[in-house]
Structure formats: C-alpha cells, structure tokens
From TrEMBL:
Protein name in UniProt: YgiT-type zinc finger domain-containing protein
Organism: Alkalispirochaeta americana
Record-linked Pfam families: MqsA_antitoxin (PF15731)
Stored Gene3D superfamilies: 3.10.20.860
Superkingdom, natural source: Bacteria
Alphabetical list of CDD domains matching this protein: MqsA
Length: 85
C-alpha cells in the first residue's frame, strides 16, 4: 500500500476495482475491474506495475490481431473550442 498520496499528501487509501482506459497513438483500450488503491481524500488512483504491464500486453495483442476484444464501443469526439456556448 502507498504511504502517502503523491497529489494531496493524505495517507488513507481504499482498495477498489475500477475501469481503466489505456491510450496509445489515438487508440483506446477499456479494461473493467482493474484493482487499484484510491486515495480517500482526492481520489487519485494507484495501480500495481504488473497489472499495467499486463494491460499493455493485452492491448498489443489486440493491435497485432492476435486477439479479438470481447466488446467494442463507438465514442464521439469533439473539439472543445468548437462547442457552441
């Protein structure tokens, strides 16, 4: 467990399973139920390096076509500066 949050300095964390979004070169990989420690004060999340490496390896397998995703989604993309106010 973390000793202290790197963002707010608090030392209380909760173990959680969360949705993690991996991004690389304009491609996204959404992974559900990833274990992490979340700061009780500011919500910053900390992930075990071995889990992040595993996510990256799965992403690379998908990109090489060695694996098929269980589910795919379409995501709308907009530029903030183009929003009508």
């Amino acid at each position: 467990m973390k000793d202290k949050c790197q963002f707010c300095g608090q030392s209380e964390f909760t173990q959680k399973s969360v949705q993690y979004i991996y991004r690389r070169d304009g491609h996204f990989f959404v992974v559900n139920n990833v274990p992490c420690e979340e700061c009780n004060s500011c919500g910053e999340r900390y992930y075990a390096a071995k889990n992040l490496k595993r996510i990256e390896a799965e992403f690379e397998a998908l990109e090489r076509g060695e694996k098929t995703a269980r589910q795919e989604v379409t995501v709308p993309v907009e530029e903030f500066a183009e929003f009508a106010l």
